[in-house]
Sequence to fold (400 residues):
Amino acid sequence: MQPVGRDDVEAARAALAGVVRETPVTPSRVLEALVGGPVLLKCENLQRAGSFKIRGAYRRIQRLTADERAAGVVAASAGNHAQGVALAAQLLGTRATVFMPAGAPLPKVEATREYGAQVELVDTLDETFTAAAGFAGRTGAVLIHPFDHPDIVAGQGTVGLEILEQVPDVATIVVCTGGGGLLAGIAAACVPAGVRVVGAQAAGLAAWPPSLAAGVPTSVTGATIADGIAVSRPGDVTFALVRDLVDEIVTVDEEALARGVLRCLEREKLLVEPAGAAAAAAVAEYPGRWPAPVVVVVSGGNVDPVLLVDLVRRGLVAAGRYAALRVRLPDRPGYLADVLRLVGRAGGNVVDVEHRRLTASGMAPGTVDVALTLEARGHDHRAAILAELAAAGWDVTAEP
Fold:
């Protein structure tokens, strides 16, 4: 396959006119304060179907022959690609079948169905690709890969063309990456204009650093809350482009991802999934590392409400604003009240109290464990509460 160039991305943009939204860019005062220069968010979480995926999916299906479209398309995805393919197929009058893991968030499954796709559930994400390939072989449907095809890459690269017009002086673009379709496309569009492009990947499943070090796409194992970029191996098409065009790849851990989701929700007023927040998390973790103005691609906002509750809690814990403590006390009246008064005087807000009377290993007779969940004002305040409890003579530990 021929490499994707700026002309291919320009052609994709012409084909997508009137189909996708030109999503806004908005300044981020929080990140600007960290970076010391302008930082803007490119809000693809506000795109049709909730992510950038409609861009590549539409371009890929639009380029099929009439006979290929008549045979239908098939895809494998945990969510965003599924919705992008389903919507693109609906717009182009093509049947779509999407294989999704049984554990996929219900809102993503229902949204895919609402866009007109036939959804087939299989046990695991890995099995979805096998099932989709088998379906394509049996029926003649065209398999729409989530990232590893030039038309997909060119479609995703239209995000970069919009950035160049919206922020003409952009110096650095930070992009989340899993398989590399969005990163490669933006690099193909923007590197020729002299813009530095940086990829951000979840450290829990980071295939790009070892792949680039080895010089070939390399498979890794792991897990991450950022399911939208949970890809174990870069694509062959995307690898060549990223290797040749992208300045560097950085990784962010799970706590940074959770803080990124919370920061976007609380300070930017944007609902963003963990994968979509990866680039923002990277800028916060590596402030001042890249020249400004910096544009952060917020790639998607399709987050399961159940997961969002957990992410907000994890973000609060990571920010030092939510703490779980264990205090060991004599099992006699009045001691629990003393601890709660001390926490109150220290400015902590108790959310939950659990009296654990069951004897734990190494626990002296006549003692009891009290589990406290409380709100604090940050890491320093949390540490001060722990220090005051310890100074009062209590056996206290912070739980994860």
About this structure: The mean pLDDT is 92.
